[in-house]
Amino acid sequence: MICLEGQQNLTFHDLEFKSTKDIVTEIDKKVEAFLVKAILARYPDHGVLGEEYGAVQAKSEFRWIIDPIDGTTSFVHRLPFYSISIALEKEGELVLGVVYAPALGQLFYAEKGKGAFVGDIPIHVSETRELDKAVMATGFACLRAGLQNNNLPIFNEIVPKLRDIRRFGSAALDLCYTALGSLDGFWEMNLNVYDIAAGIVILKEAGGVVTDFTGGRQFPEKGIAAANKDLHNELIRILTEFCASA
Ligand code: IPD
Ligand code: CA
Ligand code: CA
Predict the structure, then answer these.
(1) Fewer CB atoms near the end CB (10 Å): N or C, the chain?
(2) 70 Cβ below 6 A of ligand 1
């Protein structure tokens, strides 16, 4: 309710700017404070890493990773594509992911080894094998941050090969819609662990493959590429070739 009511009553006076285009609102902070309080009340010796308030009690085998609103720009512009992303890490391994989209009424979740779901429905990545039959998503944090090394040249390389592209505005939801099979793949640069942690658990439990742009495990630092196995191979082939020639 914090998000739905907050979004309706939001005014542009409620916005703060981490950089010219990187917005944070009182609602982001309120959601994170609510979640941290609820988690530590239940698990007082766990650690927490949240986007807005940082790390709490870092010394623990358990760490919760929270993005209180993933897609704040969508949220502020009264669009439905934003989500609350919560992941749990045990001894450094992601074991639980929950992504809730309040405006869409969708709750995605997965526990390692137990499958991925939206509501009570099991989900699985798509069976699409050819790029020209695939709809993928990406994002442009790089442009928001004015980074030289940005996604536009890659976007221009990949999009003509696809059936179509979507830019919903929440990396966590992009990963969930790939897990759902509605999207066939997702790639992005310059994300942070809290953007993707929960979505990765859900995508992998839905049979998807997720790596960095070279096919390795250094994501999101070296980019993130997620899809079903066949399309992931195609995506990595393009990204590797492109990065090598760049
Ligand atoms: C953003 C969203 C967006 C992605 C940006 C992220 P935020 O998260 O995930 O889709 O392209 O890079 O920063 O900032 O709204 O939590
Ligand atoms: Ca985010
Ligand atoms: Ca956020």
Answers:
(1) N
(2) yes
Taking CA atoms only, the protein residue closest to ligand 1 atom 5 is 141
Distance (Å) from CA 232 to ligand 2 centroid: 23
Cβ(142) – ligand 1 distance below 6 Å: no
- Tens digits of residue pLDDT in 16-71: 887 777 788 899 999 999 999 999 999 999 999 999 999 988 789 999 999 999 99
Distance of alpha carbon 50 from alpha carbon 85, whole angstroms: 10
Q: What's the whole-model pTM score?
A: 0.95
pLDDT in tens, 2-14: 888 888 888 877 7
Q: How far is the CA of 44 from the centre of ligand 2 (A)?
A: 25
Q: Rounded to an integer, what distance in angstroms lies between the CA atom of residue 79 and that of residue 29? A: 19
User: In what order do the strands lie in the sheet containing 135-137?
Assistant: 164-166, 135-137, 185-188, 224-227, 209-211
pLDDT per residue as tens digits for the range 150-163: 899 999 999 999 99
- In short, whether 32's Cβ falls inside 6 Å of ligand 1 is no
Q: What is the CATH number of domain 2-122?
A: 3.30.540.10
Comma-separated ranges of CATH 3.40.190.80 domains in the chain: 131-245
**Which CATH topology does 131-245 take?**
D-Maltodextrin-Binding Protein; domain 2 (3.40.190)
Residue numbers annotated as active site: 51, 67, 69-70, 72, 195
Return d(Cα 51, Cα 116) in angstroms, integer.
Answer: 24
